[in-house]
Amino acid sequence: MTSSSRGCSRTAQRFLYSSRPTFVPRTPLRTRTPCIQTPSSRGYAVAASTFKPLDGPSSHFPHVSSMPPVSPSPGATTYKISTGIILSRPPLLTETATPFEKAFYLYQKRLNERLVLPFTRYFYHKKDQPADLEWKVKVKERNGVAARDIGGYRAYGEEGWNDEVLIGGQEEKVAEWDNIAGKLVDEGMGEDLEKVKLESREGEADKRSLARKMDETVYLVVKGKEKTVDREGKEVKVDVWEFPRGDMVGNEVLHTAAQRILAQTAGENMNTWIVGHIPIGSLTIKPSKKFGREAEKVFYMKGRIMAGQADLKGNAFGKEDFMWLTRKEIEELVTKRFWSQVGGMLGGR
């Protein structure tokens, strides 16, 4: 206990137990905190006045009584679980380079020519030998440069600083791979050999062929019939393109059901495999009492085809036609509602 606390308690004791009158000065003492506080007490009581509630608004609301009774919300929709498969063929060729990529690669090749030592001709070809004579003939076409794919650029010449290609220039066309490949075939061909024809990157135009769009991924889509209503309100059947799908049977799991549905839709003349046991996306189909359509959720599995071809003859789902299409072609073919749900499942290339 501090000295200030002891002094305060002694003063309080003297004030309480003293029988003599205590002189109280007129001017109150200014203290920071009182030493002791006694609770105040009242020696009388006053009867409380009678409580009278205020006049409030009427509890009767005419606009509420005129409203119809609230019906309970309907129960949650029960969805039927189905499965489908997105069967794809991966790209067979590298993607075609853009004009910017072609210009970038050509610049890197020319920059490499400026950083390395020049080609040592006599280290590889002896003077006045057949190989040296052949070199003299071919090097004239390349402006005295050993490399074929830099467009005749001479890194150690007077124009070595000018290594950038102009847009639409002749050097850009000379450095393209198609021209280089054609010259390689011509140089390697003898007098008695037939000219080899290079295969095109585009492939066949037939959309049923797997040998099309070889630098992009193509997906299998099938055509069926679906009931709908036209503008006049009549019920009609329209062609619908979609991925193969169907109901699950018994205790099937998604990946085994997808294999069965693919075989029942496109035949068994395909060497395919399911990538994983987890779906890559889902499609929600709303119910329709008019067309007798149940609410359905379709979980799509990812599949790859390595060989073979689809065959819809005698399929179990009534599909009429099939095509192998790219992502962009599918977007132009299907409805916007269908694409909004399945577009994210397809790859960018």
UniProtKB/TrEMBL annotation:
Q: Choose one Gene Ontology CC annotation of this protein and give it.
A: mitochondrial large ribosomal subunit
Q: Does the keyword Ribosomal protein apply?
A: yes
Q: Which intervals hold domain Large ribosomal subunit protein mL46 N-terminal?
A: 79-206
Q: Which InterPro entries match?
A: Ribosomal_mL46, Ribosomal_mL46_N, Ribosomal_mL46_NUDIX
Q: Name one Pfam family in it.
A: MRP-L46
Q: Which CDD domains match?
A: NUDIX_MRP_L46
In terms of domain of life, where is this protein from? Eukaryota
Keywords, A to Z, come to: Mitochondrion, Ribonucleoprotein, Ribosomal protein, Transit peptide
Where does this protein reside within or beyond the cell?
Answer: Mitochondrion
The primary site where this protein sits is: mitochondrion
* GO MF annotation list: structural constituent of ribosome
Protein family membership: Belongs to the mitochondrion-specific ribosomal protein mL46 family.
UniProt protein name: Large ribosomal subunit protein mL46
Native organism = Botryotinia calthae
